[in-house]
Amino acid sequence: MKSTKLLAAAILLAASSSAFGADAVVDEVVVVDTSYNWSGIYVGAQIGYAWGDSDVDFSTIPVTSNPEPDGVLGGVYLGYNAQLANGVVLGVEGDFAFADLHDGDGLASPVPLPGQSIEVDVNWTAALRARLGYAAGRFLPYVAGGVAFADVDHEGFSSPNASAGTGSDTFVGWTIGVGAEYAFTDRLIGRAEYRYSDYGSEDYAGTVNFPTHSVDLKTNDIRLGISYKF
């Protein structure tokens, strides 16, 4: 009888210890989930690398060119987040980046065109995007998309050193991307992001040496950023 009572007491003690441990784990999770709030205004700086694709098509002659500009970019961003009670984070953000994207390509045609080429340069990019994320404590994965802008120059060459004509425009298109942020402190937030941008195309009237043509631009880029939340 005594051994039976001892066994029952041991079982009760083990069960109470397990329940206490489970309560401690639950309490810890609750603390983590509510430890940080993403609401507020923030301003940051970013740097990245972009690679693109640009098709140049001539409307009056069977000639095309496909420069693929790539290079570094860097700039600033400013935004606002609102964190809801269920952890969803809604935001809006604008950014501007100086860019050094460049490439040249020869002309594709049924007949050889030696020495002739097109060069494309991207001087800056900008975007205004909406953001949707989910707060997991100090970690915030998100998706973002909106309108995108790029300042694009292009130049045609009838020979390696002879310019046939130039064009310059601000392209307007769209962008979408994914990223993640981590709050190192209550104010300092790091970021890594990928985005795809389609800036559309522009048409250019022809000249004697540079016939009527269109230029389009699409880019992929990876950016790293650091921001301060007010």
TrEMBL record:
The keyword Signal applies. Keywords: Cell outer membrane, Membrane, Signal. It is found in: Cell outer membrane. It holds the Pfam family OMP_b-brl. Residues 9-230 form the Outer membrane protein beta-barrel domain. The keyword Signal applies. Its main location: membrane. Residues 1-21 form the signal peptide. Belongs to the Omp25/RopB family. This is Outer membrane protein. It comes from Mesorhizobium marinum.
